[in-house]
Specification:
Length: 140
Amino acid sequence: MVTAEQKASFRRGLRRAREAAEYSQSGLSLKIGVSRSAVWQCLLSRAAPTEKNVAALEQELELQPGSLSLLLGYLPAGAVEREMISVIEALEADPKLGERERELLASMYRQLVKQREAEGRDTTAPSPAQQRRGSSPRNG
C-alpha cells in the first residue's frame, strides 16, 4: 500500500522530471499510453501509478531506473545498485531541504542544462575537474 507521504514525494519528483524534460501532462500521457487524467491524478497525489507505468515514466523522462519507483516503495524488475543518482533524485532524498529549496535548486539545474545545451556543449563530455580525476559524468 502506497502512503500519502510516498504519493507526495512521487508527485514532486514526477513534476520536476516532467518540467525538466519539458513535457506537458498531455504529451507525457500520450508517450506512456495512459490518460491525461491518470497523469493529473498522480500530480495531485490522488493516485499512485502501477509499477509498469512508473517504469514507462522513468524511461520516457530519461531517469535512472528506480528514481521514481523508489519514491513509491516500488522496486522495478531488474533494478540493480547504481553508481550515481540524478540531481532530481538527490534533491528529493535530502531531508535538509524544504519544498522551496528543492524547487529553487531544480529550477536552477534546469536553467544550467539549457544554458549548456544552448552553448552547444556536449553534456556527456567530462568537465575539467573530472578530466583531472580521470572520470566522466557517465562513470562518476
